[in-house]
C-alpha cells in the first residue's frame, strides 16, 4: 500500500481527497499546517507528499525547500491557485515533481498521483545494457531506481534520478533544457527551463568532485547539457 502525506488546511478538500484515496487503497496521513507537514515528512517515509502552497505557518514552498535540503527524496506534488504562477516555477526549481492547479478535477489529480507513483516504482528494463550503467565511479541500476557514487548510495529525488539516467544512457548526446523538460517532466512547462538548470545544479552537487569543473554532467554552451563520454 502506498503511503501519502497530504498537507492541506481546507477541510473540504481534505475530506474529498480522503474519500478518494481510501477508495483507491492509499494510506493517507494529513497535516493542517506547514510545521506539522515538515515534522511528519521527516519522521516517516512516504511514497508521495502533496503540499498546498498556501499553508498556515510555514508555507508549502518553504516545506518543499526544507525537505530537499534534508535529502528527503519522496516525490512532491504542489497544489496551487491560478494566481500563483511564480510560486509554481519556484516550487519546481526547489525540487517539486509536479503541480496541480486549484480548482482541480479529482479525476485529474488521482491520475497525476498514479503517474508519479508509477514513475518511482520498479520498471522492467528494456535491455540488460540499458538497465545497468557504469561510468567512472557512478553506477546506475534502473530496475532498482538506485545510483551509487564510489559504492555509496546517492540520495536522489525521482526527477534527479530520471535526469541522471537519461543523460548517462545517452553519453555524449546534448539535450536542450526544453527537451529535458519535456522528456523528464512528461509535458511542457512553457518558460520553466530554469527548472532543469536547478535540477542539474543539484545533481552536480551530489556527484561532482568539483562543482566548478564538472566531469560527469557537462555543459554544451548555448545548447544544453550532455553526459561525459
Model description:
The protein is an alpha/beta fold and 229 residues long. The chain has 2 domains: 118 residues, Rossmann fold; 100 residues, Winged helix-like DNA-binding domain superfamily/Winged helix DNA-binding domain (Arc Repressor Mutant, subunit A). It has 9 helices and 12 strands. The chain has a 5-stranded parallel beta sheet, sandwiched between helices. Strand 3, helix 3 and strand 4 form a beta-alpha-beta unit. The longest helix is centred in the middle third of the chain and has 15 residues. It starts with a strand and ends with a strand. About 3% of the residues have low confidence.
Most strands sheet: 5 strands, parallel
The average pLDDT value, as a whole number, equals 86
CA-atom Rg in angstroms:
18 Å
CATH topology of the largest domain: Rossmann fold
Strand order of the largest sheet: 2-1-3-4-5
Structural class by helix and strand composition: alpha/beta
Count of structural domains: 2
C-alpha termini separation: 40 Å
Oligomer: single chain
Amino acid at each position: 500500500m502506498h503511503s501519502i502525506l497530504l498537507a492541506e488546511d481546507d477541510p473540504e478538500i481534505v475530506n474529498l481527497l480522503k474519500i478518494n484515496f481510501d477508495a483507491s487503497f492509499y494510506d493517507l496521513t494529513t497535516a493542517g499546517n506547514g510545521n506539522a507537514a515538515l515534522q511528519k515528512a521527516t519522521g516517516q517515509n512516504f511514497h508521495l507528499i502533496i503540499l498546498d502552497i498556501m499553508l498556515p505557518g510555514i508555507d508549502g514552498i518553504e516545506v518543499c525547500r526544507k525537505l530537499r535540503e534534508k535529502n528527503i527524496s519522496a516525490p512532491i506534488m504542489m497544489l496551487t491557485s491560478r494566481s500563483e504562477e511564480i510560486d509554481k516555477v519556484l516550487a519546481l526549481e526547489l525540487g517539486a515533481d509536479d503541480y496541480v492547479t486549484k480548482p482541480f478535477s479529482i479525476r485529474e489529480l488521482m491520475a497525476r498521483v498514479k503517474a508519479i507513483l508509477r514513475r518511482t516504482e520498479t520498471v522492467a528494463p528494456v535491455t540488460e545494457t540499458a538497465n545497468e550503467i557504469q561510468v567512472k565511479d557512478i553506477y546506475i541500476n534502473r530496475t532498482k531506481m538506485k545510483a551509487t557514487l564510489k559504492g555509496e548510495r546517492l540520495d536522489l529525488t525521482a526527477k534527479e534520478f530520471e535526469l541522471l539516467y537519461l543523460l548517462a544512457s545517452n553519453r555524449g548526446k546534448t539535450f536542450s533544457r526544453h527537451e529535458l523538460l519535456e522528456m523528464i517532466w512528461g509535458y511542457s512547462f512553457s518558460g520553466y527551463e530554469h527548472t532543469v538548470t536547478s535540477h542539474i545544479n543539484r545533481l552536480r552537487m551530489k556527484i561532482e568532485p568539483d562543482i566548478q569543473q564538472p566531469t560527469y554532467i557537462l555543459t554544451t554552451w548555448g545548447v544544453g547539457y550532455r553526459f561525459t563520454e
